Predict the 3D structure of the following.
Amino acid sequence: MQDELFGGEVPARRSRGVQPAPPEADDQALAAALSPHIHLGTSTWSYPGWEGLVWAGKHSEATLSKTGLTAYAAHPLLRAVGIDRGFYRPITASEFQRHAEQVPKGFRFTVKAPSLVTDALLRSEDGRRQEPNPLFLDAVTALQTFIEPAYEGLGTTIGALVFQLSPLPALRLSRMNEQLDRLHALLLALPKPPAGVLAVEVRDAAWLCPDFVALLRGTGARYCVGLHPKLPPLQEQLPLLRALWPGPLVVRWNLNRLHGPYGYEEAEKLYGEFNAMLDPDPETRAELARVIRGTAGAGQDAFVTISNKAEGSAPLSVRALAEAIVKG
């Protein structure tokens, strides 16, 4: 009608907010072929460089951080996401609830515990000044700053609540029995989550011993496979998973081994906008796909999050991993 009266085309209505990229038919087919027990995702969701992969249109990191989660969760393959920022500052129950309200049924969160509990050292912002942390693996602090807010706010969207234990100073490494006792006491004090699992990820191979397996088994916590150059390759971590079988699988693919244990900054510079797979790691991907396939095939959940620093672009890594799982 307006065309007829005034001539010209009617301007298209501008959509508001962050919109998802149109789903690709191949991704939809892959998603339909994946077991509902498999929850793949990225380590966070706020990267502007994912335009066309996850987002339709350009958005700032701040906008994506605040309002991009719904668009992220609309991607057919992204059934999980990590929340790493709680490592630096505890997250409130209301913040967790806002996240939970933005995702569909079946979506799961992997959340890192605050460093206030998981780092044996208190560090300055530049990382140079360090002093002992009196709250390291303190159960009361863990409950108040992490467990209770996450249980209240995330509820049944919990996938894995991860205590990622930072590298230990030399003195604590020389007294691993004390650290194992601390961890055991912490896990025993925590109530069972309303969904998902509690998990422990480490940065020192010294943790990977029979006593560590025994305390995880005794407390019902899971081992979070950390794919990071500070730890042995995935193949060498599998005996620990076998010792804890059966149970859900938790994996965080953090950093490509070629960058070495301190290569985060190098990887970030190399990978730029994180929109291309620049350092594919087909060996790790194939082994991981095999473990995920077996876990889900036995009726157990798999919660897997991938960083951009794993291969260059986390959404593309998720797609390649899904293909490896489905094609077997």
The domain at 20-327 is CATH 3.20.20.410 (TIM Barrel). The longest strand covers residues 158-165. The first helix runs from residue 2 to 6. Residues 1-15 have pLDDT under 50 and may be disordered.
